[in-house]
């Protein structure tokens, strides 16, 4: 009920701007918590208890009121929220004059309170999710049992494959010049926007701080994950365009690898964070990055960050490695690289027709998504295949 007390005077002020009569609000115990005459706040108003007991509009005329007992002529009506009585609205004046306004003002104040309560609940939920994701992502010794208990309590599947999407704004949201929105409202808008654009209405989405938001997006396995990443660049562009409308000029967005449960999300977040930091280090701010993007992987490869390549390259190469003709395809590809990407020379060494080699190289490209004509990307693939063969 403390929330209603804080709300009451704001409601009185809002209604007083449109109503020509003084009003008062009492809580469910009869204490005046908002009034056009601020000196009445904190005093007891006995008739409010009568209104709550009768649970209907009650009129008070001169004959039934005594100004010395803090009672004035007018109309009083109970205020309800979620089928409970939360207080009483009183409109002071001639009962016949104020009665027509009572139910109208009652509806208006109940609507205001409903919105205020909804905002408070929303703020609590946002804060609660921020705390949970902070614990999951940044606590080195996070207890799996605690995470599972929380998931059970919130009806969130624990052992479900997900991956992290990080949106980094580059500066604090608090610097946004929004006269009509609070910081919590701005956060809510971005969370709602992110869920809509990335087609995810899971509750696992929150701000880690005032300049970074994370989403834990469900997936149904590796193939579904790959399909989701095909849409990622377009979705990230749409999100950035919407952020630009709120004066955020550069948004870096990264998707981490797939993990099998919530307590493994740290791995996905750290990889997404590394992609954003790598992009900023190399002047690639304000873009979309994911760990299956061959161009991003090639940049990591030539930067010497080869330890980050094993997991994503293994996933990219899975269709090739599982193909019945994988040994032949890999041999054709590596020979092509060893012949300095000369098709004719490689075909001669392999004793195959030039068109046969082109067909096989194109098949490797379709399976892996790595263009065989791009030296940087092909070299990265060659390195990985050679290392895998030696192991």
TrEMBL record:
Superkingdom per UniProt: Bacteria
Boundaries of every Putative sugar diacid recognition domain copy: 6-133
Domain CdaR GGDEF-like: 144-276
Keywords assigned by UniProt, alphabetized: Coiled coil
A Pfam family hit: HTH_30
PucR C-terminal helix-turn-helix domain ranges (all copies): 333-382
Coiled-coil regions, chain positions: 222-282
InterPro entries: CdaR-like_regulators (IPR051448), CdaR_GGDEF (IPR041522), Diacid_rec (IPR008599), Homeodomain-like_sf (IPR009057), PucR_C-HTH_dom (IPR025736), PucR_C-HTH_sf (IPR042070)
Family: Belongs to the CdaR family.
Name under which the protein is recorded: Helix-turn-helix domain-containing protein
